[in-house]
Fold each of these.
Amino acid sequence: MSAPGATGAGRVTEPVTETPLLRVRGLRKSFGPHVVLDDLSLDVEAHRVVVLIGASGSGKSTLLRCVDLLEDVDDGVIELEGQDITDPRLDANAVRARIGMVFQSYNLFPHLRVLDNVTLAPRLVHRTPRAQAEAEALAVLERVGLADKARAFPDELSGGQQQRVAIARALLGRPAVMLLDEVTSALDPELVGEVLDLLVELKSTGLTMVVATHEMGFAREVADEVCFLHAGRVHERGTAEQVLGDPQQERTREFLRRLHA
Amino acid sequence: MTTAPTTAAWQPSEHQRDRDAYRRSRARRSTAVAVVSTVALTAVAVLGLVSSPGWPRVKASFFDADVARASLPAVLDGLWLNIRVMAVSAVLIVVVALALALARTLRGPVFFPLRALATGYVDVFRGLPLILVLLLVGFGLPGLRLQGIPTSAVVLGGLALVLTYSAYVAEVFRAGIESVHPSQVAAARSLGLSRGQAMRHVVLPQAVRRVVPPLLNDLVALSKDSGLISILGAIDAVRAAQIETARYANFTPYVVAGVLFVALTIPLTRFTDALARRSGWLGAQSGLAGAGALR
């Protein structure tokens, strides 16, 4: 497991690593008496897209928030590139800088222009000079098709455009893994496509992603693996064809039935 | 709801116990650091004060225990007047301010005079220094020799406080009313509520909750400014301290009055903080659970 050469510094250029990029073991998280995650385990290999599905309240968002250290876990281990990031001795800010998170409601900063939203973290966290940060930001905005909106304020954009800016913002930190929390749930149906298309394109660049979604069509298209969350655990996992096409567990079948009803 | 079965049998793993132990040791260390730095800072401040060349003189004329004891009853008597003035003024201020804020939200040409009056009132009384209002009201109003105009310094002083503070508080209320999202009014109106009903039952309850902390802040300011009525001749805590200072040729009564005012406002401030922290009270503004406690 602990391969001697592969400790953090060697960013995964070699796809054949023994340790998964993200490794969750025995994760428990409760809010008061409400146990949301209970002994949950999950592996995400580098360059793979893992899609989390499950009823609302099944813990998809909580799992992502725990991985991004936005919640303190009650128990369990979360390892990123072989390092236990739940260790309170670690600098949590440095860990979060290695993880990109995109939220359901975009969470852009309304008082900053698109360009400043995207360059805020590079300038403050990575100490990138403004000119360089803006050049890189424009390149990323180009990639998400919004370079012409760099001077706009978030509320001048459509929901889909705002979410693409949020994705650009997360990308600019060159995250080891991207966490996407129901990123299309707040969007009008005709705007969902542009965001999903962008995610498909990101997958083709080899970005590692963990995606919580209700879009089963999207799950089929991009998922290397689908995990069905139930009762605080990964109840069933497999390829999209297996889990969505031929689920083995009764709970999974019931969930999919209700979704299509 | 798909809740995980409540595992009452859950015991923290070895790993988690180790993490918790580390956090506890950090907490203990933080407490120790806080204690040491507080003691050190206090020691430096006290030493600096006591070792200054004029300290014996200052100690004798500002911190005389006997004078403090002797002047306390008179100053306390004065403070009781401050408290009464403050309590009555506070109630009137809230009523007048709310009326002003509501007058400024009225729409339609009929209400133009009311709107203009409220706006003008706020402009004037926010701009005038409180001490000028006190002097003008205190000496000007009785000078009119109109029937029924009170001549008591306390009543006139209270009136000046109400005039000035209601202008400030009206703006706080207005800010609160405007901070309620227009979608709330839209929702209320879509249910058939009138403009006034929407204001009374939907907007105001949310607005008032939001402005309670700044309102209490104004109340603290009022408790101190109530001392200014002494310039009209009312014997409040400040004036009483002045009299006692003259009697004993010693400044200690001022310190006594100062300590009493602080003792009066600290509970108010703590109450404000506690209220602001109470989750749920601020509605959607209180943010995501746990979002404030990120390490």
Amino acid sequence: MTASRFLIALILCAPGVVRAQTAQLPIATEEATPIGALPPMPLPMPASRDQNYWGVRLQTGERSERSGPENLFAVAAGIDYQLRGGSIYGLTAGYQQRQNCQSTTNCGHALFGARGRFNVFTGGPTVAAIIGDESATTTLGTEIGFGYAPGTSPGVNACTLDVGLPYSVAMLQTVRVVGFSTPGAVWNIDCSAEQTSRTRSLLIGFGGGIQQLGARGLDVNIGAQRILRGATGLQFGISVSWVRLP
Amino acid sequence: MLKSESRSTRRLARWLAYAGICGIAISSAACRHRVTLQEIPADQIETTLFFVGDAGEADPRQVGAPLDSLAVQASESPARTIVVFLGDNVYPGGIPAEGAAEWADARRRLEAQVRAIPPGVRGIFLPGNHDWAAETAFGLYSIRLQEQMIASLAQGRDIRLIPVNGCPGPVSIDVGRLRFVALDTQWWLHSYIVRDSTSRCAATTMGTVTAALRAEVRPPGQGRVVLVAGHHPLMTGGAHGGYCGLTGPYRRFGGSPQDILSGANRTMRDSIRSAFTGNPPLAYVAGHDHNLQVLRGGQNVKFLLVSGAGSASKTECAVRMRESFYVTQHRAGFMRVDILRGKGVLLRVFRYPGTKHGALAYTRWLELR
């Protein structure tokens, strides 16, 4: 328990490499697209394999602790299609803005993304058995996402490809609480007029939430994420999603 | 300085907003209306049904908690009580031909269930896939042998297997407000003969069975409570529903008609659901998956109950889905439905071993009182 707390603290609190002291820190590619601009979410709650489900999603988050005074605030909306109650495919569109932007230009940009999340295993309590909750559900999956953010800097577009291994455990009968982690990797892809360097970054996200909040299709989650590269700070935000049940 | 304070204030406000949303979320979920157990005066209960499924793996050394407790509860008011066994009454392969080595043990398994029905209580057995000789060519004959054996074990009491003679049903029973409709869902999924020269079934095709079911779920009279029962569930978060285990989502490629994801199973479910259109029954009750689930049925049926945890040695995993009201996995148990006079239908789920609060694990008004 202590070791795991230490590990979490280390991941969240470890300083980035070298932090620039400029007032307007360039937005890294990984920060600009949905994978870094928006908070992580758990795998979707299982539903009947008999049907497909449409859903909508609102996400907002702030990337703070970047070096310099500017935080990055983002808001986005998305639509999701849950296939046979398991894997989910979604499209996202949003906007990211520098807070306290002193400039008249380059203060924000749009962002777009597409994501597929695939359930590999959905089963019983596993780790939740430790607390004796026999109603718990464990979900392990894989995900792949593509992100695009035009004009993050003059003449620079951001494109990313990410993969991950999301894992979540949902517990309790009356209040359905879910805890999740979303480790993964993100690659930036050259999609600007000016050639940019290609890099790969690891990322770790985790959070918690409540499923079926008042309505059977409504989930609310909070999540935090750190990209293990540079002065990218800490992402923290909230996601609200709703799935339409037939 | 002022700028810094302003930023701090905004940050604080944002964090408070997050905390507020989370607080509201937690409290509203926690305060969701809960149906508590109410002791109902016995004279207000018109009919009591017990649903237990997949009970055919009885321990040869003891009765077992579910059947023992069910028998005790059912004996309280025998005249108004019906015990329904939801199929897979004899594992692993139904009743074999007399003289087979397995015959005596098959009889022993069935006898354990018949004995759990107290004197004066009506008993109904539905066929499951294992009762159809585990889906083999002997299935039709095995189910007929089981019907005969139950009649023999009943010794004149009102205990029987329906639908009879390997027919698909539906078979309806009216008791007060209750209309109970029994189906043999394995008939839809069986890959070998489902009728022969001795079959005298009222419905012999999928279309005629669906049409007959459509008529049966529209009983005359006001305030009727329609419960339809078959071995195979219309929805489940268990292994047959494509969950539990690494192979869950991919079982569809195996093509077993016993699974929700197979084409034959879907055809059956779609047909049954289509028969409910316009007149949704209160609940469709099934076994097949070895757990206890209470699910939201959707437009065509209000509630879906899965009560397939009659054998302690066979209990399995179940996943809580969006449609789930209640799920218990890896626990044996049964469901009890009390139909009240005038209005009100109360569901109670019992599981074994129970918790410190007892075996009663869940209650819900299926029809508000």
Amino acid sequence: MKKLQIILLFIIAILTSCSKDALFIEDPFVVAFQETSGKLLDIDTQKDIKLIYSETAYEQSIVKIRITTENVLYGRDFITIPAAEGNELSVPININEIENKFQIVELNNSFTDVMKITFSISSIEQDNANIQGNVSHELSDSAYLGGVFYPTIGGPNEPNQVYVDLSSNKETVVRRDIWDLGFYGGEEFRVTINGSLYMAVSALTNTDINSVNSLSVAALQPLVAVGTFDPENKVYVDGPNGNILETAISEISEDDFKNPVYLLNLGVEIGTAQPNTGSVAIAGESRGWKKIRILRDGNGYILQYADLDATTYNEISISKDADFNFSFFSFKTNKIVNVEPPKLQWDISFTVFTNILAQAGSYGFSDFSLHNRKGGVTSYSLVDNTISYKNFTAINVNETLFQESQIVIGSSWRNVFDGTANSNIYYVLKDANNNYFKIRFLDLTNENGERGFPRFEYTLL
Amino acid sequence: MFLNKKIIIALLLLSFSTYCQEREKNSARITSLDEVVVTGQLRPQSIKNSIFEVKVITRKDIERRAGNNLADVLNQLLNIDIFQNASNGKSDINVLGLDGKYFKILLDNIPIINEEGFGNYTDLTLINLEDVERIELVQGAMGVQYGANSLSGVLNIITRKKSNNSWEIQTFFQEETVGKEYEFFNQGRHIQSISVGHQITAKNYINLSYNRNDFRGFLGDFNGKHYDNEDQLRGHNWLPKQQNFGKLLLSHKGENFSAFYKFDYLRENIFSYDSIVRSNFIPATQTSNPSSFDQVFNNQRFVHHLNFTGNFGKVLYNISASYQKQEKKRESYTYYIRKDAKENIEKNLFLSKEVWFSRGTFNNLINTNKLSLQAGYEFTDEFGFGSPFGVNIATGATGVSNSLRNFDIFTSAEIDFNDNFSIKPGVRMSFTNLFDTRFYYSLSARELLKNDWEVRFILGIGTRTPNYDELFTYFVDVNHDLRGNENLTAESGLSTFFHLKKYTNLSDHFSMKNKLTFSYINVNDRIELVTINQTPLQLQYNNIDTFSSKGIALENEFFYKNVQFNLGASYFNIKRILDYDTGKTSNNQANFQLNSNFSYEIPVIKTSVTAYYKYIGKTNRFIQVDGFFENQKINPYSWFDLTTSKKFLKNKIAITFGVRNLFDVTDINTNAVSGGAHSGTNSTVTLGYGRSYFLKLAYNINI
């Protein structure tokens, strides 16, 4: 009897204890360069070269880095800290850290555009380590080779528009509510509205701006908006493909009498609410309405604008600037404002966007990415391609696939229900200088699951 | 007798009239089939004398099925379906097509708090069956006796309050497979239990018990927690959960006075491992550090229950007072799968509810041989905040606190016209802070006819009050707009049951019981989530639906020596009409069910064998997707369980082995017919996790 009791207790003890099993293979420990390249001539006497680890270091060791040079000499033109012994330098891997760096110091201001210095990882003196990824870092005068980019969209309210220049690895960040109208700098006389604020615009039959008031447009107002789920409402917003001929505001005519007054819905403010983790809160309060009329002024524009019930109006002359896609105007400051970089200095942008859905008409999208159509950029997407992103090289580029439509990337890169970036899609982009890049999105959120923190990688082909 | 006066005045106010005759001593024959029941009764009495139709699930039935919680034992009954929700691990009951919102579950005659109600919408997996003596099931409106939301009936779980032995120690452990999945540690279901009872004196009894139910989840096509592929196959098909139940009982049973104090404690953890894995790929090192957003839901419940029964002179009283509290917490974190590390841990309390409750009944206020009168009161004060869906509530709305207070008085009488014919009228008045004063009426009658025929008729009119979500949900963002409606009114309902029963003794060894039941339930102003605006899409709860269900059921039980055999069949038809402003839609659902049990006891070798079978015919039901209704057909399926039990060493050790869900039912196909804009959304309904096996080893010591 006693025996049985003991056995019983023993069995219970076993059953209540825990164990676990794993279904995965660990990656090796890796030390790699954060960037694969840098501009030698950008170095102002000294520069940090960053090394990152695949994970927090769990033992103390060192990484050895070999230096190879072209037309440049260690000790005469440059040195490193820590110093190299022979053609190799050793950088410590400190336990519990996730990165380290070394410095290159220019001597006697001697760097020129024919010089090239390459650092490559020769050994990681640790168990279970492997040399892979960005195994070298090249300092020269050639274009940026690629890397990882975190566009500063600004979190779940997505307050910013971000313009990224891939070949220089730089971004320009502006709040998306600093402008209202963009006046095209190219040949055509066209005006764009700020779709990131869900603006909408409708021509009126009138050409007398003072005769328009809230009573005369009352019937029209509910229709001139984004997200009314009416397929016909697409006429009130700019064509999503970015074709300048498809703006909601018609071509500004030389003949003033052909330029009607427009009813302009200013859309909504940038949201301020803090949404649940994984969601966005991009839309705030309504920004109200304006009435506007645009005329030509030689090779420029005249904008007349007023509040709906005003009986007088303001007027401003806006000239074209051929270096930029648009000259931007703000009703808040009544001034021309700087928004986009010069049109040849950006490739893709990130913005909240007014898109058009076949059954629902205009519809607001977060996390949208556009290529710079007006700046001569084209791109195409590869879904479930037989060639993996990793193996895709310049010889795989298919020139016939490049599209002008600026929404090739659009929202196709992300899956809002999962909060992830789609791993089965990547993009090929050609900039105005005929640089080809492959682009793949890595994340829609940060590691805490918060929206508005995307991440993508790209490589110059 | 100050209470007497008050209650009698209340009775007069309710203009309750009674018709009295000489009352005679009840002399119903006691047969082996008679069991004493308490639910809805004026005093404990036999099933035969009960005016309500009461069905009893005995301790023996529970043990045969190795049932650990209510969900384990109920799905065998006709017209009762248990739906398991794989995503949150809860089980809801469906009686004659009405869900748990219309059915009350009581523990020792009082409702138990749960996140979505008080006594209603009970998660059956949270009702542990440790130390349960029997379960009483009454089908039919019990609004007069038990208040709102008991239109389709009540289920009352009666626990043991005394022992015949000085010391009683009962332990068991139970190992179950979950479908094909079982491992000593990581998979399957593991239950351990211990209960110690001590009869201190002849009148005083104490019992302490602990039960642990460790359900390791059902993987199905999924791969559990330690899985790092981005194919959305991490986690579980059914979420794992661990439940701990503790109980303390102090009981005194005297001649004219009995009392008990009971404390029940529950602590439950539900583990939700997200199927989505973020690789956190670092291109620079070509390595990943996969992570997921995991959540642990913690549920704690306390129930204190103090009860007094006894008599002042001829008046029998039964008073319960209870304080209950439930809290739900959520811990969310980023889990780095390969490192087994949690980061960014966030904890929040998203639901907290408390209830003060008291119920008292006073019998024999008028007591002649023909008439017995009961009056009673019920007081409920529910308060708290939160929603079971916690995470869906807008940030600003989580702290919204609400309270619901009810004070009810009720009375009912049993009038015996003669030995065989009795009626029981009743009325309840319910005062509340949220709704208009509500009334409940009931009228039941029983006639014992010649040759052991029995006829019962139960009519009840009652209401269902809107629940927290229906009143206070607030989920609004750019693309969604779903709101509760504080202007909802209570649903009103009527239910009638007619039972015809016959006992037959064919010989000393062979007897049978046959029962035919007709039922009709009607609910008006049913609350549904409806689209109140198309552009933009807005959804709100509104009183728009009418529901009626007509049913017929035939149940037969045969007893021959050590063999017991049941065979039953039922058919019910539900009609629903949705009356929008824009038009009406209606829907008919019909359902046929068949059940059969077979049980054989072999005393010589102390072994019993039991088989349970239930067939559920094609079900037609209305389901709701985004405010639209779809007509969903669920294909027929059946449950078949087999158990065998053997006792050893003077009944000290009992081993039970069984197979649940022998037909391996998992997901059942449905064909969703479009009823709105979202068509063909649901193609399968999760019913079970497949054929599973269990082994239970129980060890009992009586000193």
